[in-house]
Amino acid sequence: MLLHQRFIPGLAIASYLVGDERTGDAAVIDPTRDVEDYLTFAKDNDLHIRHILETHVHADFVSGARELKARLKDQPVIHSSGMGGAEWTPPYADHVARDGDEVQVGSMRLKTVHTPGHTPEHVSWALYDDTRSKETPWMLFTGDFLFVGDVGRPDLLGAEAQRQLAHQLYQSVFDRLPAVPDITEIFPAHGAGSLCGKAISSRRSSTVGFERQFNSVLKHKSEEQWIRDLMSNMPLAPPYFRRMKKVNQVGPKILGQELPGLRRWSVNEVHDRVCDKCLILDVRSKEAFAAAHIPDAINIPFGHQLPTWAGWVLPYDRPIQLIVDHAAQVPEVVTHLIRVGFDEIQGYVQGGIDGWETSGYPLAMLDTMSVHQLRDQLTQGADRVTVLDVRTENEWNAGHIDGAIHIHGGKLQERFADVTHSKPVAVICGSGYRASIAASFLQREGYADVTNIVGGMSAWKAAGLPMTNCAGPVCNK
Known about the structure:
By secondary structure, this protein is α/β, with parallel strands linked by helices. It contains 15 helices and 24 strands. A hairpin with a 4-residue loop joins β1 (2-8) and β2 (13-19).
């Protein structure tokens, strides 16, 4: 048997291809929308993808099931759960799976195990290799039910559904999982960094037995206490999760082999607003953006966190034009964006910011300030500057600057009214990455004096500067 695990940092997505080397039959589990990796692996190993299996209707990325099937001339069979009712049964499924259904892949069998709780229709796929054992599953592809060190969160469908889903998740953990042997290996759909859980390990696989012994969420408690502990300090879910659910419920648009967003726009076309509704997304570094950028551009620096923050803060009803360091970046940037459903990428600005500068068009800058300069300003009087901390609740609670206001960066656009225009605004996060995103939105909203604090709270702590609500050796009380 061949097993290929594909892991995408940032979104922390894990998807899988399993193949029988003797027959050449293969199946893909939970594919992402950019499907070239599966096609290449199958070709390189003389495999034919016959089946596409989904564990559930995903919330954090666009399913690649339809895309992969289309690229393979509609030959594979898509298997999706039908156990959440019609609302949660994807209309593009060729086989609507029930509990205990089996899919034959050469000498392997993949059997559905209904494990609701993260979503009502959620299934895990138990893999049996009949050449080794017909009774004991070798592997369990657990989707967002069971992670290494955690379980999936039950709160992504809203407050009304949360109570029932949490109850179902408790039953899945303590009624269904015990039937799986300790030696069965687990392969989840996410690793550390995913917001589909709150304490997912960086390890990408485990065994059921190891999780039973060391995964605290698998320790038996009363249902009420278990749910209370599970939901304590659960991170905020990005609003784009709701959109991804809807996209995957009905089936995403098939993009085809050629990526969107490869058109080149001249700086004159961008300046003259040929695309009058386009939003300019500048993916250069926070330092480059601070030095010079097109007025009203939004900065989300290129890297693994780009799709997550694009989903957090960008509108889905605006087409996008890109500012990149060099044209070779465009395909990777576009791939990041289509994974979270940004299909209307119009292209990139030819010549980038250099072309804009040499054309003599207006430029905007973003001030930066060291943590020592900020400390000096605050020493002169807290009323001289508004310190806006855009980190998470847990980061804020672990220590922050006295007098700062706290607004999660993903919520800033809902709370501009809480940030006064009458004083300079110094934006701080952990390192400056999220602060640059927030600062670009503040500038776009008309805040005239905005500064990104270089190094963020990491630099503030390293410099031994005072924090409130903080404990530990880094704190200066």
